[in-house]
Design brief:
The chain has about 280 residues and is an alpha/beta fold. It is built from eight helices and eight strands. It has two domains: about 130 residues, no CATH class; about 130 residues, no CATH class. The strands form two sheets. The chain has a five-stranded mixed sheet with strand order 2-1-4-6-5, with helices on one face. Helix 3 packs across helix 5.
């Protein structure tokens, strides 16, 4: 969409920021996908350089370039998105690594080749199982590993369970940045989606609101019905990343989760409005 391209495409004024951002994501995701298959390629390249053999087969090279160049051009110059985009050209890179593996083990028989391929597959499996979510610590580089998947599933599942247990759908709305998950798993609840700018984008962590407009809604506008006369209406702040954008934390209470985390909840009375734009909160009309 246009909001991505403005900060990533050189044709839409992203400049050096967009180029660096695209190269960073492309490099990280490609290296992670290529993984252990980079090792035989590196060894074979070193061998060829040592032997001063630089020739390549023209037909194969042109075929691989025709395969990989168009998406790589787009990702570098225009936009590099999520990790899965590397699958467009990653098979071409893996074919090069496969050829390098065959050449390295040439003359050693099929068993050596089978053992080499099995070893690379095993190392990949071990890395997937053993790597922590943030292998470099902190909130830096995040990898797709077994731990990452478990944390992601637990993050959403405990929120879904807590909302279903504590908040009736008819009197509750959910303010969410990761709203696709809410839309799918909690279809009975009123959803208020907000688009938060992703990491490594300009304005990361802020709500995308280029026109600077603030929406105001009453509970009745959302179709909510109070559970009883005393409790009013509940607005669930689904994502922790939204808490910093909440301008009325004094009107927010927390529901504790099993993981020692929490979900923030705003209580909206019948004569108050929920506003959201670059920030959000509750105020009198």
């Amino acid at each position: 969409s246009e909001r991505f391209y403005v900060t990533t495409s050189l044709f839409m004024g992203a400049g050096s920021f967009g180029l660096a951002r695209n190269l960073r994501k492309l490099g990280m995701y490609t290296a992670f996908g290529w993984s252990v298959a980079l090792v035989p390629l590196g060894l074979y390249a070193q061998q060829r350089v040592g032997q001063r053999r630089f020739g390549v087969r023209r037909e194969r090279t042109l075929f691989l370039l025709a395969w990989a160049s168009p998406p790589l051009f787009f990702y570098v110059i225009i936009h590099m998105g999520q990790q899965g985009l590397v699958f467009v050209f990653l098979p071409a890179l893996l074919l090069v690594s496969a050829l390098a593996t065959v050449r390295l083990l040439e003359g050693r028989g099929r068993m050596a080749l089978a053992v080499g391929m099995a070893a690379m597959a095993l190392v990949n499996v071990v890395l997937f199982i053993a790597l922590p979510e943030y292998p470099l610590g902190g909130e830096g580089v995040k990898v797709l590993s077994w731990e990452t998947l478990r944390h992601n599933d637990a993050y959403y599942q405990e929120r879904f369970d807590a909302i279903r247990e504590h908040f009736p759908a008819e009197s509750t709305a959910i303010l969410a940045a990761n709203w696709r998950h809410v839309q799918w798993y909690l279809p009975d609840y009123v959803l208020i989606p907000v688009n938060v700018i992703s990491k490594w984008e300009r304005g990361a962590g802020q709500i995308h609101n280029p026109q600077g407009k603030t929406k105001q809604v009453y509970a009745q506008d959302l179709g909510l019905i109070p559970a009883d006369a005393n409790n009013g209406f509940q607005i669930i702040i689904f994502d922790n990343s939204l808490e910093i954008l909440n301008e009325t934390p004094q009107l927010t209470h927390a529901i504790k989760l099993d993981s020692d985390g929490y979900i923030g909840v705003l209580t909206l009375s019948g004569d108050q409005v929920l506003y959201y734009g670059g920030t959000f909160g509750i105020r009198e009309p």
